[in-house]
Amino acid sequence: MSGFDLVPVDGGDPVHLPPGETVLGRGPLLGV
User: Where is this region: Disordered (predicted)?
Assistant: First the structure.
């Protein structure tokens, strides 16, 4: 599987990012 996973430091399920999905911005993913 290509891409990579973001693993929350406080636990929870990893968030898979496929290739090309590199813009994170602000929002629920970063807890902002």
Answer: 1-32
